[in-house]
TrEMBL record:
PANTHER family: F-BOX INVOLVED IN POLYQ PATHOGENESIS, ISOFORM A, F-BOX ONLY PROTEIN 33. This is (diamondback moth) hypothetical protein. The lineage of its organism: Eukaryota, Metazoa, Ecdysozoa, Arthropoda, Hexapoda. GO terms for biological process: positive regulation of protein ubiquitination.
Length: 172
């Protein structure tokens, strides 16, 4: 998807793309991307995201994960910490991983605090319904940012928000 001044990549459910090819592409062009959708692929885990987050410093929209059950766990605390440190312009984030695959620890509150404090432009954080969603929602509510955290049953994020004529596409 291209807009006049925006570069976005949406490879949702593109199982034929390898981790290595994505890593090479994102390492080379990631700093130019404002929107990135790497979802619906069971082979894309937090390890790839951790390795490319530092080049996604201009990202405004990130969509990651799959609703399918995985054979590995997603360490969401480290992922949130990386997003907070490398993506200060982030406006919309969606984690589509199944709640059973998300692993978090007692340090989750700290990682969520860092995300909330460093990503001040964050308007929408979408998570699958579950324990982690409840923890994140409560954290944002304590900071009087009640409208940011949403469940994936009610909200979906896409790169459409970056279109220059997006406001013209929205109907009342």
């Amino acid at each position: 998807m291209f807009a006049w001044d925006t570069l976005c990549l949406d490879v949702d459910s593109s199982d034929n793309i390898t981790d290595e090819a994505l890593h090479r592409f994102l390492s080379r062009h990631g700093s130019q991307l404002w929107g990135l959708v790497l979802s619906g692929m069971t082979h894309i885990t937090d390890q790839l995201w951790q390795s490319v987050l530092q080049v996604l410093n201009n990202a405004k929209i990130l969509i990651m994960g799959t609703q399918e059950r995985l054979g590995v766990n997603i360490h969401v605390d480290q992922l949130m910490d990386g997003i907070a440190n490398y993506c200060p312009n982030l406006e919309r984030l969606e984690l589509r991983w199944d709640p059973e695959n998300l692993r978090f620890s007692d340090k989750s509150q700290k990682a969520i605090d860092i995300l909330r404090v460093k990503c001040l432009k964050l308007k929408c954080l979408v998570l699958s319904d579950g324990r982690y969603y409840e923890i994140v929602k409560a954290n944002f509510e304590r900071a009087d940012r009640t409208t940011v955290v949403r469940t994936s049953t009610n909200c979906r994020v896409s790169n459409y928000y970056l279109l220059s004529n997006y406001r013209d596409l929205v109907f009342n």
